[in-house]
Write a structure and sequence with these properties.
By secondary structure, the protein is α/β, with parallel strands linked by helices. It is 38% helix and 19% strand.
């Protein structure tokens, strides 16, 4: 990106063209988001600054952001932040970028009371932290196999005021988990081997593969969860997992075979199967 833009708006227009030429989807949105980050202002305040001049330091930072985006680095990794369920979460290359589709799981989980929640494969912590933030008396345990991911989740838990109610623990699924929970949630890696090769470079080249795909048919984590979750659900406890759009029926059948009841598939905002839920019957 060359030249010195005369205003914030000029810089955004130039960046939009350059991002589009690089094949970046929705380049105008990304240019505005990156400019707001460079200016250090909320995105919704950017409209008020379009005619303002832009100082050299801010423009240099914006140029750096745009260059990174042209290499298809995700916007959230450039800015270090991603909004989820009305809150801002820290994001690094060690964690999966929180997706709007995952809000479907959170909304479904919040449909009934709970006191104790277990989040398997927590990543940024966005699911567990949001659930605790929305339920001020609840406590939780969140696990991940990645210590760097847990460090990100700890920072997010502290920033969002739930660190005193959330235990973050290194664990391969249930290995370091004891006790029973009113609510068990997970957004496990579910992309199958064939689909992995077709992913956008933002995902395939920049997000942690461990958090995205278990290989083969993508269903291995659900087999682990289905086998162990009944032992860790309190009587009447609920289980919610995110799935790929074509995996709901297979996961639902696993949950039924494990003896869980009230198995249901929930669509996301685009009408695609996204969450499978189940219930452990009261003793």
């Amino acid at each position: 990106m060359t030249g010195r833009a005369g205003s914030v708006g000029d810089a955004i227009r130039i960046a939009t063209r350059m991002l589009g030429d690089a094949g970046v989807p929705d380049p105008a949105t990304d240019a505005r988001t990156l400019m707001a980050a460079a200016l250090g202002i909320p995105r919704d305040r950017l409209l008020l600054r379009l005619r303002d001049g832009i100082d050299d330091d801010t423009l240099d930072l914006f140029h750096l952001h745009v260059a990174e985006r042209r290499r298809r680095r995700p916007v959230s990794q450039i800015t270090g932040r991603r909004a989820f369920y009305g809150r801002e979460f820290r994001v690094t290359p060690d964690v999966l970028d929180p997706r709007p589709e995952t809000e479907t799981l959170v909304t479904a989980a919040l449909s009934a009371p709970f006191d104790r929640v277990l989040d398997l494969g927590t990543g940024t912590g966005c699911i567990a932290i949001t659930l605790l933030a929305e339920r001020g008396t609840a406590t939780g345990l969140a696990t991940d196999i990645s210590e760097p991911a847990l460090a990100v989740a700890r920072a997010n838990a502290a920033a969002l005021g739930v660190a005193d109610r959330l235990d973050l623990r290194l664990s391969d699924w249930f290995d370091a988990v004891g006790g029973r929970f009113d609510l068990v949630v997970s957004n496990p890696p579910y992309i199958d081997r064939a689909t992995w090769e077709t992913l956008a470079p933002e995902v395939r080249d920049h997000e942690p593969r461990l958090a995205l795909t278990p290989g083969e048919d993508g269903l291995a984590p659900y087999r682990v969860i289905a086998a162990a979750a009944p032992r860790h659900l309190a009587p009447g406890g609920r289980l919610f997992v995110e799935t790929g759009a074509d995996q709901g029926p297979a996961v639902a059948e696993m949950f039924r075979a494990a003896g869980l009841d009230a198995v249901a598939i929930h669509p996301d905002m685009d009408g695609r199967d996204r969450v499978v839920s189940a219930l452990r019957s009261p003793d």
